[in-house]
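Sequence only, no structure available. Ideas?
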Amino acid sequence: MSSRLSKNDWLDLGLAALADEGPDGLTIEALCERAQKTRGSYYHHFNSGAAFVEQLLGWWLKTYTRDLIEKVERLGHHGEKLDHLNQLAAHLDPRIEQAFRRLGARNQQAARTCRAVDDARIDYLADLYGQSPRFSADEARMLAQIEYAAWVGFQVIAPDAKPQEMLHMYEMFLRLTGRV
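Reply:
I predicted one. Tokens follow.
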């Protein structure tokens, strides 16, 4: 690591710690050890462990949801957007996704953020499906919920799946739902 860590460096380090060690990896001591930095370096950016977790939750929402939606929104047709979104989602680290859910079981703020992430993702998928003349608004919403539930569920039952396997599952989903 560089000699000085930025706030975002610490947050990325927190994502890695969460993926590798789960919520227990988010202690100040564990993070400083991982970063090979002093507590002073940590406290330069965060005044407490709770403040770090709060900012980490926001960082996850931004980098794993909002930033992806912004990338996808630069594209044209809703079908192209759906395909690109699923390409990006297949490359998300499922360990991070699952670790945030485990953190949510311990921490109400994390549980609220998990719900906000889920809602934002489902809302966006429903919006994309709603742009197709094939689906009513209710059908678009239901299809978005089903697809998202399948994606989250696949992470649980196959946490070591490679992105290619996730994409294969998505392609099968498209075929089975008649989208291709």
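The chain has a mean pLDDT of 90.
Hope that gets you unstuck.
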